[in-house]
Amino acid sequence: MIRAQALPARLFGERSYRGILWVAVAVAAYVLAFSLAAANAGTEYGDWPGRWELPIQEPVDRFFEWFEDATAWFFNPLSDVIDRGLDGIEAFLLWLPWPFIVVATAAVGCRLGGKWLGIFCGAAALFIAFNGYWDSAILTLSVVGVSVLFAVGIGVPVGIFAAFSNRFESIVRPVLDTMQVLPAFVYLIPALVLFGVSGTQGIFLTVVYSIPPVIRLTNLGIRQVPLAAIETAHSHGSTAFQTLLQVQLPLAKSSIMMGINQTIMMAVSMVIVTALVGVEGLGTDVWLSLREVDAGEGLESGIAIVLLAVILDRFSYAMARSGHSSPATPPTGGTLSGKSGAGVLKFLASRYALPLAGAALLVVLLIVGALFPPLRDLPDDLTFTLADPVNEVVGWMAVHLHFITSWVRDMLFRELGYSPIHTLFLWLPWPAMMAVSAALAYVTAGWRVALLALAGLGLAGIGGVWDVTMDTLSQVLTAGIFTVVVGVALGLLASQSRHFEAALRPVLDIMQTMPIFVYLIPVIMLWGIGPLVGIIATSVYALPPVIRMTVLGIREVPEQVIETAQSHGSTALQTMLQVKIPLALPTIMMGINQTIIMVLAMVIIAGLVGGGGLGQEVFINSIWLRMGHGLVAGMTIVFMAMVLDRMTQGKREASIPFGLIR
Question: Which residue has the higher pLDDT, 491 or 6?
């Protein structure tokens, strides 16, 4: 608690003056950038010298060509086995009657989270079926399920090993950092080399992308087991293996299950990327709607992915919350001891009536559905579509709101945002750009991050992607600044109004679970294509974390501190600016950190709609299987993500493993 006498010093101390200094520096830099853009300043001074570029791509390409030939004897049979297994699972799930799967989904939800979760999951499955995306959802579920099984089967043992070996953890941590921030499209090239266009490649991509959370949280959960519990087990003669199985893993269950939950969500988010390599499902539907610029079908398939993700999320989250509970208290009637045969049957009927009835219903649905085709395959007459009205609304907006959308694109994002920043970065001589970046990294996060910034910019220079990197950095900062300003403002407003927060919460839920690609369709219809379209879509996608964390930070400010400020005569505005925001700043910065990472996740997506930059470089090189060029562009994005991540965390968070807080 902050004492009343210390409050003025807390409000107007060194941190306040430091903040004013940072604001003054940012304003001066923006004025310089805007002036350069208005004067059409030349950008020839900022070019990296061409003679300093190194042909680092060719050795990488030659290595992968050799690796493909050398390992074909192993990966080709493995791919065939996984493909056949995946085809079998898909065929079995498609054979099951759709009412059986709907009822089973509701029953599992009811068992794990109560009747309301069961009702919601059953209704969500029905919506997917009647909306016409049942088969696509089943195909997606099979790929996600197999991928999660592989990820958990590999990730949990690796996390256990990391928990018992600090040296192994220090090796695994940077690998996980890279896996989490390296664009998924970069994985396409080695996956195509190893497995070709097949379902196995989709599983490989999904496993590589989604495995870090289960490794990190397994490691964390085991390390957080109280030492007293471990010592007690050892004192009773347990071996290390017995202690792991009977003490550490049970006590770390909630953390491990939360890691599995995050792995499932990341696996679902990969369904659109895996559609590029021939994996059928909901991702293919989104790609088709994006190619045809069909906002209605894109929204429908996106909603189906969201509902599937929510079902899997609620199931895994409910399993994470469930611990080792004590045995249920038997109902009135005692136990089985001393009861006759009729008494036993009566006891079992009273205790397990609902589960037995549910199991009987499932058996009946399975048999009837197998005999009657309308119950096995959903008739088309029962489906409905939302595509036409959605397309009409978006088309009306494109025509009648053009005066607003054009102003937002041309003035707000281009003239006031992207153009000044891009001009400044290309105008600065490359040594000055490296010096400024290293200095900012050093001041905000320490000398290690400063070296990381120099390494990333050096890789961009010698790899021949300096100008492309400056373009991407300009887009990232433009989208990041706009998102942070709007998100903090909305968060502050929501923190002061429960009604506004209640109205905003479901919107944020949808924004966080909707696939990234779905945002592109209405944005393209309203704004066309180009880098500004990617910036706008990125800003919308990255808003939720900063809004949520701002609300959380403001709400967690102690009431005693607020009352003390008000007793000193502070108005509501003064209390907000001088008390609530400073005390909530660490939480708000965490939201900004998450927002920056989500902005960087959109770099590749922006490249698909003519956004240019590193994202387009990665996408084009993945199509042409140029691993060297794609790896240079992808690793440059990785360095950018790591530096911005640590700069927004600050020096006090430098010890936190990258990505663990997400």
Answer: 491
